[in-house]
């Protein structure tokens, strides 16, 4: 089936990646509109190896020309246009946090709960990119052994905050080597050669909004009652999220059983023994990769039925763009 698709936020780094994946996977379109809140006269975005799409302003855009609208322009835009899109008869796929926890809106990680797409009533949400990797890695283990506790430390790259954040990491790194003063505008403290135990605003319970969202969205997608503790850290990595995850299960499961379950799961690559040596993946190695990489899978000796694992994935490509396109392919 061919679609008429509008991508709102097409000019930002996530929108450009989404357009690249749409083209690479040959998604059939009768029309494809690049839309942006701050579109400039004559602005274009690349599409394919040689193509270009004109960027048009969101204000005044006619949604009746589409049957699918994807929002990558944030929560405020989502709340402003969601009902307009539905009224125009198009399906609204939201990349913001606006409707993720709405019980009437399916929240989709395509490798985990794609069947829930069928329950949509004109609106579909996709989760925080960290949840895509976390849920994809844990779902096959949960299905086999019923996870009752998750404790994850998530190392989030600066690309989650946009192009200006990536530029700041680059510029700070260069300034340090050149002994120049540091410019610090995108993060509360220096990010180059540093770690920040804060990825969003703090809440009353001393956690962050980011950690609260990841916890709730993971539980919604896994459809479990497990306890979840999330700690998020901003790291001086341009692209690629990672997590060290510790889980407890109701049922007994060995590391080898978990490895086998993960190896049989679409969208997961297990990195284990390589020439009889334990191997693992890092953010530097997974840029642009379609899979979530899981390694360092081992039993947790601190308790019964516990496992530890390391996950790594491209938060922009896998965590957002590919997940969105997988949703498109199911409509």
Q: How would you sum up this structure in a few lines?
A:
30% of the residues lie in helices and 26% in strands.
Describe what you observe in this structure.
The chain has helices at residues 13-24, 75-87, 110-113, 129-145, 163-177, 209-222, 255-263, 317-330; strands spanning 3-8, 29-36, 44-47, 51-57, 68-71, 91-94, 123-125, 147-156, 227-234, 241-249, 268-270, 273-274, 277-278, 292-299, 306-313. The chain is built from 8 helices and 15 strands. By secondary structure, it is of the alpha/beta class.
Write the layout of secondary structure elements.
Elements: E1 3-8, H1 13-24, E2 29-36, E3 44-47, E4 51-57, E5 68-71, H2 75-87, E6 91-94, H3 110-113, E7 123-125, H4 129-145, E8 147-156, H5 163-177, H6 209-222, E9 227-234, E10 241-249, H7 255-263, E11 268-270, E12 273-274, E13 277-278, E14 292-299, E15 306-313, H8 317-330
Parallel strand pairs: 1-2, 1-5, 2-4, 5-6, 6-7, 8-9, 11-14
Antiparallel strand pairs: 3-4, 8-10, 10-15, 12-13, 14-15
Helix pairs in contact: 1-8, 4-6, 4-8
Number of domains: 2
Q: What would the average pLDDT be, to the nearest integer?
A: 95
Low-confidence residue ranges: none
User: What is the CATH fold-level name of the largest domain?
Assistant: Dihydrodipicolinate Reductase, domain 2
Strand order of the largest sheet: 3-4-2-1-5-6-7
Q: Which sequence of SSEs, written as H and E, runs from N to C?
A: EHEEEEHEHEHEHHEEHEEEEEH
Amino-to-carboxy terminus distance = 8 Å
What percent of residues adopt helix (DSSP H or I)? Answer: 25-40%
Number of helices: 8
Structural class label: alpha/beta
CATH architectural label of the largest domain: 2-Layer Sandwich
Q: How would you characterize the largest beta sheet? A: 7 strands, mixed
Task: Assign the CATH class of the largest domain.
Answer: Alpha Beta
Sum up the overall morphology in one term: globular
Name the CATH homologous superfamily of the largest domain. Dihydrodipicolinate Reductase, domain 2
Strand content: 25-35%
Instruction: Report the radius of gyration as a whole number of Å.
Output: 20 Å
Q: What is the number of E strands?
A: 15
